[in-house]
């Protein structure tokens, strides 16, 4: 009888694991359930996004064109629209004023309690602690022209902060190498005083994601999309992933593909919970894991009793 029950319980555990896509840990039991992953503090406000992709750089001969940012931006628009974002979209923005007008069109849609997302793909630069996003017709014979020709990234964050919306996501698939160095296939550039993009002051309840870590380059990619955005697009489509889990998956995928030459980076002050495709899936997964853990413990108990019965079975007459 115990043998039959043991077989049935093992079968139950297998079914629950398969249905919930939960895998046992490498040890003897299951990894502890993260209760925070199924809490009820999910951000559910209306969703708005600003997407800018700059690739056709022709304004300055030292700033080389990029292959994928427009593809990245276009594909990001489709993915975010499917995730219930209303999108303000711009590609190959020629001048600073045009970029700032796009920001304002985006900001006008935000209200307290909403979710705001800004995605930028293209060249960027850091000078004197300020990060600048570069329009396609910018002419930059020296660093002096940056503040007149390029848009400060902080400008977007400051605007979002004043609105007071609940949650802000800023994704910069730019940086960190110098387009003036004549090397194709890199995004962003480095000035002499320090490399990469500078740390940014971000609003409370926000996360800033960079395509790579400080002082490193972000590959433009040889396919349709840049390496970072390619994996980001895939991860956004996965149901039930919290934002933190999603960025971890992207970081690992990019790191693996580039042999750790490019490692995405995030800074966050967000304490809530956000899922592009809804967090209900992770709640059901958490409940399924509880059932698996309970069944697994019962299997272990039955196995232990069964072993004792075999060990102390009286000799046959």
Description:
This protein is α/β, with parallel strands linked by helices. The protein is 37% helix and 16% strand. The chain is built from 8 helices and 11 strands. The protein has a 6-stranded mixed sheet with strand order 2-1-3-7-9-11, sandwiched between helices. The protein has a 3-stranded antiparallel sheet with strand order 4-5-6. Helix 2 links the parallel strand 1 (47-53) and strand 2 (85-91). Helix 1 (2-20) runs antiparallel to helix 8 and helix 3 runs parallel beside helix 5 (153-163). It is globular, with a radius of gyration of 25 Å. The chain starts with a helix and ends in a 6-residue tail after the last helix.
Summarize the structure.
This protein is of the alpha/beta class. The chain has eight helices and eleven strands.
Give the helices and strands, then pairings.
Blueprint: H1 2-20, E1 47-53, H2 69-82, E2 85-91, H3 96-107, E3 115-121, E4 124-127, E5 130-133, H4 146-149, E6 151-152, H5 153-163, E7 167-173, E8 186-187, E9 206-210, E10 218-219, H6 227-236, H7 243-257, E11 265-268, H8 280-311
Parallel strand pairs: 1-2, 1-3, 3-7, 7-9
Antiparallel strand pairs: 4-5, 5-6, 8-10, 9-11
